[in-house]
Amino acid sequence: MIIGELTGIAILAYLLGAIPFALIFGWAMGKIDITKHGSGNIGGTNVFRTVGLGAAVVVVILDLGKAFLAVWLAKFVIGNDSPPILAEVPNWQVAQVLAAIMVMVGHNWSVYIKFRGGKGAATYYGSWFAIHPLPALFGGIIVIVTAVLTRYVSMGAILGALGILILMIILSIVNGFPPIYLVYSVIAVILIVYQHRANIARLQNRTELRIGDKMKIKRPDSVTEPPGAN
């Protein structure tokens, strides 16, 4: 029974994570296919550069929200009654981490858009708001401070994830925080760094775009049909 429930949670979390809000609101608010403009990335930063701040804020909030919803639903569905499948780890914690990972996977490799997607940072922070707000706020502050000081959003996303990992190591050792969340933070950092590998290369070469820099558009802004119309 519990395996079936966890399988359903994983599928639902993936499908929620796969919703390409950047693509949807890139068209709704800017009349462009975001995958054909700017970096082509399905994320808030590319929306900001190609559509504008308002659309980017909407997209980031929705990406945070879909991760929060997936993880919250996971705990709600599993509850506290079933015997643990992992020694001394409540099944609802297993469900939370499974949903959090799958919502990131869905966001990064969306079934709705031929397994393209974003880089997983917003969904990572959104999942932490459902698990425990402290890591989410801690990582979010690092993102904002780094972006303000360096104007590199990608650096902020990476350092924020690494900051959460360090915090989780401390909380696990000092505070007895459930180690399964430390495992999640390690997996998430690997995913985020992997998805930012091109950004890391550009940071090393000093060619990464900063906030406010102009980006060359891949194709002209002459989109006359919504994405997927043909």
- Sum up the overall morphology in one term: globular
Count of discrete alpha- or pi-helical segments spanning 4 or more residues: 10
- C-alpha Rg (nearest Å): 18 Å
Tell me the number of strands: 0
Helix and strand run? HHHHHHHHHH
Percent helix range: 55-70%
Which class best fits the helix and strand makeup?
A: mainly alpha
Structure characterization notes:
With 230 residues, the chain is mostly helical. The chain has one domain (2-205). It has 10 helices and no strands. Helix 2 (21-30) runs parallel beside helix 3.
TL;DR?
The chain has 230 residues and is mostly helical. The protein contains 10 helices and no strands.
Task: Name its key features.
230 residues; mainly alpha; disordered C terminus; single chain
Write the layout of secondary structure elements.
Blueprint: H1 2-17, H2 21-30, H3 44-50, H4 53-78, H5 91-108, H6 121-131, H7 133-150, H8 153-174, H9 179-195, H10 197-205
Helix pairs in contact: 1-4, 1-5, 2-3, 2-4, 3-4, 4-5, 4-6, 5-6, 5-9, 6-7, 7-8, 8-9
